[in-house]
Amino acid sequence: MPLVPPLSPWSLLSDAGYIAALLTFVAFFMKDSIRLRQIALVSNVFYALWAGGVHLYPTLVLHLALFPVNAVRLVQLVRERRLIDEAIAANDVSAEWLIDFMERRTIPAGTVLFRRGDAADAMYFLANGRLRLDELGIDLQPGALLGEIGIFSSDGKRTQSVRAVEASLVYMLRRHDALALYKRDPAFGIYLVRLITRRLVEDIALERGGAGQPPVTPSGAADASR
Predict the structure, then answer these.
(1) DSSP code of 61?
(2) pLDDT attached to residue 89
(3) For the structural domain made of 96-220, what CATH number should be given?
(4) pLDDT tens-digit profile of 5-63?
(5) Distance (Å, rounded) from C-alpha 53 to C-alpha 94?
(6) Which ranges of 54-184 would DSSP assign to H, the alpha helix?
(7) CA distances (Å), 174 to each of 106, 150, 167, 180, 200, in order?
(8) Which has more pLDDT, 131 or 6?
(9) Listed residue (12, 6, 74) closest to 49, CA to CA
(10) Per-domain residue ranges for the chain?
């Protein structure tokens, strides 16, 4: 019975090089960013094995450096995917999680927060107290988010005046910070879409319900930019 000759180290290194090249080729066809980074990580390992074995040290150093870069980016992509999935699955559209990005302000009773026609330079979260949409005569209760639609509208103008009925505590997110957060965090964009959609549904319900409009609750915070 003939003996199978043992594989030489050169053959194993050659296979590692071919596998690395094949993985790099496959990566060019991947549309899923997470899968692409996973393939890139495996490719880095095989390239490093091959390059180290054949003494191609510049290639070895390159892929040893690329491995942690791809690993970090993979962790970021997985985190972003998880945040998006959580935002889509969430039933609550409370804005309390935005407080960490916002500035705290105390509004004395009778103070006008902004007037109709003003530039929409910030959005607000009402933490305590009571605000009123003057043109609509609607009171906003704690938990309400207001002003965000004006930030993303084409003219960027307020269409309602907001006044503090009593001393109130609000948190403010400036326009440029809101736009930066929208660009950086997909979960924030999904949150806004879900919130605005809920408001549109509640607006339709209010129109059908007639003139007797109840105070706005945290789950249906009216936007003062409309």
Answers:
(1) H
(2) 65
(3) 2.60.120.10
(4) 454 555 666 788 889 889 988 888 888 888 999 999 999 999 999 998 888 899 999 99
(5) 56
(6) 57-89, 148-152, 175-184
(7) 16, 12, 21, 10, 24
(8) 131
(9) 12
(10) 9-89, 96-220
